Amino acid sequence: GASKNLNLMEWDKLWTINKKIVDPICGRHTAVLKEKCVLLTLANGPEEPFVRILPRHKKYEGAGKKATTFANRIWLEYADASVISVGEEVTLMDWGNAIIREIKTDNGTITQLVGELHLEGSVKMTKLKLTWLSDIEDLVSLSLVDFDYLINKKKLEEDEDFLDNLNPCTRREALALGDPNMRNVKKGEVIQLERKGYYRCDVPFVRSSKPIVLFAIPDGRQKSTLIVTGA
């Protein structure tokens, strides 16, 4: 009769296949982590905020449109602000270039950036491409949830007890600000947060005081584990 083989398959292969399915069609949105986020003031930015209608996916019209607000005060993530130098030209995604003129700190912590738009600058010449959100009241609160593997080893040996190899932390959560268009994201919908990855909406927008809950979807680049299958 047919023989039985034990195959070990990496989860990453499945996540990579899944990415190829969702990436061509899922809408793009922007989020900035709340923790120590930094305000960038653009000295020559628009006196009054204005809105542009942009595609949610630049290569797939079926994803629909989104309204993006442009203002002279925008939020950046602290991790991005911490690698910017005075005088450096950076690219604000979906807007253009800006030059950072001043970095304000308090006891070594960056508290504010001051710069100016340089929209005629080439995005090909900048090292940093930054996601950002205008400082407006319509931003939504997000809870970004990331799940890790239950077992912290790639493969358990026959004499090992899985209880001795349980991952002590399998759920991590981070609070973030999201663009106002995310009010329309439906439960179960898959989206991409620019420069962060893919997420599935677990709890959609209900009211401003309650965050939208998004579950992270691995894309095949994370630390791999194995699926055990019989063949």
TrEMBL record:
Has UniProt tagged this entry with the keyword Cell membrane? no
Q: Report the subcellular localization.
A: Cytoplasm
**Major place of residence:** cytoplasm
Return any one Pfam family short name.
Answer: tRNA-synt_1c_C2
Enzyme class, top EC level, equals ligase
Domain Glutamyl/glutaminyl-tRNA synthetase class Ib anti-codon binding, residue spans: 28-117
Give GO cellular component annotations, separated by semicolons. Answer: cytosol; methionyl glutamyl tRNA synthetase complex
- Please state every residue range assigned to the domain named tRNA synthetases class I (E and Q) anti-codon binding: 129-202
A GO MF annotation of the entry reads:
glutamate-tRNA ligase activity
The organism's place on the tree of life at top rank? Eukaryota
Keywords carried by this UniProt record: Aminoacyl-tRNA synthetase, ATP-binding, Cytoplasm, Ligase, Nucleotide-binding, Protein biosynthesis
- Give the Enzyme Commission number: 6.1.1.17
* Reaction(s) this enzyme catalyzes, per UniProt: tRNA(Glu) + L-glutamate + ATP = L-glutamyl-tRNA(Glu) + AMP + diphosphate
Biological process annotations from GO: glutamyl-tRNA aminoacylation
Q: Which family does it belong to?
A: Belongs to the class-I aminoacyl-tRNA synthetase family. Glutamate--tRNA ligase type 2 subfamily.
Protein name in the entry:
glutamate--tRNA ligase
Look up and give the organism this protein is from: Aegilops tauschii subsp. strangulata (Goatgrass)
